[in-house]
Design brief:
- The complex is a heterotetramer of chains A (108), B (570), C (274) and D (213).
- Chain A is mainly α and 108 residues long.
- Chain A contains four helices and one strand; from the N terminus they run ααααβ.
- Helices cover 67% and strands 2% of the residues of chain A.
- Chain C has 274 residues and is of the alpha+beta class.
- Chain C has four helices and ten strands.
- In chain C, β1 and β2 form a beta hairpin.
- Classes of the chains: A mainly alpha (108), B mainly alpha (570), C alpha+beta (274), D mainly alpha (213).
- Chains in contact: A-B, A-C, A-D, B-C, B-D.
- Chains A and B meet through α4 of A and α6, α7 and α9 of B.
Amino acid sequence: MADAHAHGHDHGPDHSHGGGHGHAPSYRGYWIAWFILLILTVVMIKIHNRNVLLAGIGIKSCIIGWWFMHLKHEARALVWTVVLGGLGFVLFLFYLMYFEAAKAIPSV
Amino acid sequence: MALTHSHGTDAAHGHDHPSGFWSKYIFSFDHKVIGVQYLILACIMGLIGAGLSVWFRTQLAWPGKAGMSPENYVMAVTMHGTIMIFFVVSLSLSSGLGNFCIPLQIGARDMAYPLLNMLSFWTIVPGAAIMVASFFVEGGGAAGGWTSYPPLSALPKAAPGSGTGQTLWLLAMAIFVVSFTLGGLNYVATILNLRARGMTLMRMPITIWTYFISAVLGLLSFPALTAAAIMLLLDRHGGTSFFLPSKLILSGQLQTNTGGTPLLFQHLFWFLGHPEVYILVLPAVGIAFDVLAANARRPVMGYKASVFALWAIAFLGMIVWGHHMFISGMNPYLGKYFSISTLIITAPFALLGVCLLGTLWRARIRFNTPMLFALGLISAVGTGGIGGLFLATATADLHFHDTYFVVGHFHLMIGVTSLMGTFAGIYYWFPKMFGRTMNETLGKLHFVGTMVGTFVVFTVQHFQGMGGMTRRYYEYVNEYVKPAAALNPLVTIFAFIAFGSQLIFLVNFFWSMFAGAKASKNPWEATTLEWTAESPAGHGNWNEPPVVRGDPYRYGEGADGKGWKLQTDA
Amino acid sequence: MSRRDRGSVWRFLLPVGFLAFTAATVAAVLFKDWMPPVASEHGKGVDGMITYILCAAGLIFVAGHLLLAKFIFTSGADDAPAYKPIGNKAEMLFTIGPTIFILLISEIGVLFIGNPIWGQVFKEDPEDFQIEVIAKQFEWIAHYPGRDGKFGPFRMEKYDEVDNIAALWKKDKESRDDLVVRGKLILPAGKACQIRIKSFDVLHSFNIPAFRTKQDAVPGIYTKTRFVATTPGDYEIACAEICGVNHYKMKAKVQVLPLEKYMKWLEEEPGFFE
Amino acid sequence: MSGEAAAGHGHAAHGEWECEPTPFKASWPKVMMWWFLIGDAVLFGSLLVAYGFNRVAAPAWLPQDKVFSMNFITVMTFTLITSSATMATAVAASRAGDRKNACLFTMLTAVGGIAFLGMQVYEWWHMIGHHGARLTVGPKLEGFPDVPAFSAYFFMITGFHGSHVLSGVFILLYTGFNALRGRNGPEGVELAGLYWHFVDLVWVFVFGTYYLI
């Protein structure tokens, strides 16, 4: 956003507070994140452990969300909305349905 | 696609002053025109949906006299439910009045993305057309209940409407979800980003809060229905078995499906279905707050508490869907959880109700039509809400589930409450829409008819439900239910009254549009922002951007003795 | 726009209307027993729970409408002095008080009255009589395990509309002595019955209003419900989940026999393949 | 396209139509995009929840590493992750005003997306041609039962994800082209980037839950 100002691409609604975002992150950071993601993928494939897999999914999605999608630089309200709305309710849906699926007695 | 580029440099200013008929009234970008378009579409769909209910009510009261076959009956109840929920209440309350009043009440020129707004209206039109067209295909419209639980809705042979009719139903619903999602994105972005200077979040009228919350709920819950619809379509036409278990026998034939379960659909459906109830009810309550404050000449009681209660209802509403499934074969322990969590919602809901009621404390009431509807809404939301206590308790639900108690309860909530809110809103904002007022005499007649009709119908249905009268029965052939079913003619007569008074409304609405008395800028002496715009407001709403200097409900504190102050006044 | 409403007829009409509605509703609850006569043990508990909510909710309903009527009736006319704030304390009391009250009564109800009865309905006890109910479009079939106490497994391939309605197979030794009764469910009085429900096609709901029993029949899985019928006599099953065109006709008789008679019937009735 | 917004809130009205700060501290297109992604996340979430439900309830499931070549899936994942990294780079370049690099990296991302799609096509071809899988028939595997749900969920979830990738590729090509011309500001690239990262994010979940667990 800060750069947006500098280059004259301001658009009314947000320009008054866009300055809080700090500098554009360097390219290098992204490629480090990329490397970590690759390593994690390999680890997930090699280790057939459910907990490791779930942890791997969690860490990978955090890296993508946090660095690539710039949640790091976003307002806290947005971060919480994404975490609760996009993930929380879905996990809760699965959590409750897990008991259901595990307990049903097949009849044929 | 369009979302990817943020701010156009190819500014097309041509529509700023639309002159032609088409660009002004049909493919308009103006949120007010789009809002009215939604309202008119909802009126048309409402005639169809309510007409269906009159048809099957006649059958219930005098079996065999309505020229209705059992096939017609299951189709009529299904389509009545679907049309009323998605194409009447959602369209008129959420989309229609929402589009109309959000920019006006927050001081924006238009929605954040007017093109998207127009597109979402023109997406819903074919959806509505497809829904209506499904009556005329072979086998008739969908007949699996508005919940369309598989396997009934997944196997074309299970019911007459489960053929093409059900496919068109799913298609229309998918279109509806797309349109509603686009609209919801617009609502959220507009309310978050385009508030006029000084319009902080806690200075927004409660109507805006409720629209915001219902848009958020819609965006979070409708995708679950989309997923369920995709899977159901695949089950119907791709031969998959997401919801179809192994070895079903239908009309003597062994089916080839393997491995699915219908409970999955029910979970996904109600993950949407329960928030959907709040999507429909909350904006009505919000409008009632505005109307009550303006016509009781006092600020709403407990503004902050109400906002808190709304958020609490929204959050809890997302995690209690299973109370629609107590006896669906769900794990009994989940039944206990859903009972307890659902009953927690009584707290914020009671808070909301008490704030509505308290707004009348030490009031100076003006009994105009919108106010009468708002007062009726208080009673409806209270009466309907109390029925919820029974249904949320799993134990009591053993008796009440799928009886007319449920029917009475949810009609009071998402039928009467939301329509009372819608009517209050339409009568209230009509001057802003057309620069004219609706006829008060007809309006009051409409109110009496609606009030007496609906309250008798749905209260009596509660008692019929206590008698164990089951839903979606073409005729009551069981012995035990005879005393309860004996009340059906009474219910039907009052349903006629309720339906007839809606015709009065339609006449009033369209007549006043052209011939109503001219209205001034602020006919109700209300304080919120929309009353600073012209009546009717032009494209762009204001010439000068309004600056907000106070709370939305500034009644009883006027310095010059007039007893009220606009939100823009110092 | 009706600015001067001092003598408005609505100031009287609305309170009278709301009070009349309240009075009529309360009278309807007090003077008529709407519920079908109860004939099962947990059914009494269900009725107790409903009565509890009726009292609690009725209180809220009446109080709310009285207040509504009072506020409307005593509201000043338009030329009365402008609104004076009520004061934070009074407002807090007025809003938070009822909220906590309603939360408490509803949660106490569900935790201490409702959930124990809910538990009874899903209790599993090997001592109970095991009965299976099969739902199909549009009839109910009762399936008893017979003398060996074991249900024969389903062989859906062997289903036949006329000869093998329950989709059993005579080569299975568990099936041989099973009893199959179409359109009628025979139950013992005073003894707990564990009902295992199965659907052959679409969703149905096993609903005996007199027992306050309702449980969906879900194809693919067994659902369970449990009750103790208390009074011998005839009752009805009605389907409570839309299952197609003839949903309304999908009913069956429930015959509750005294225990000795029931045992005798079980002994004497020939098995399905006998 | 979105020029009509400019009438009210863009360049033309800037300064005279000030708005209150928003709690998300982002412009409305970005807010809209985020909410769209949240909704889409719930949609994918629901599909995956359905898969999880069926998987838990299913009596048998096929071993994924016997059906798919795990190395191939890993390469697919690598491709998508790499394209995500190039996308992030494109966003950074666009923010720094480096139009050329912004376009270059956006296009590279699109190439990555196309490569991924190609591999997915191969994957489907392999499932259909080699394993004989259909929407209603599970892949045939020596010594394992037929699990139709395995292929039904495979085709539905990867197909749905693939359609997102496809639309993402079009968006990227369009955005990259516009970025070079300077038609959209950094925000255009950023929004396309958000969408692309989201597609990658979904793949992380699909990869973890469908292919590995």
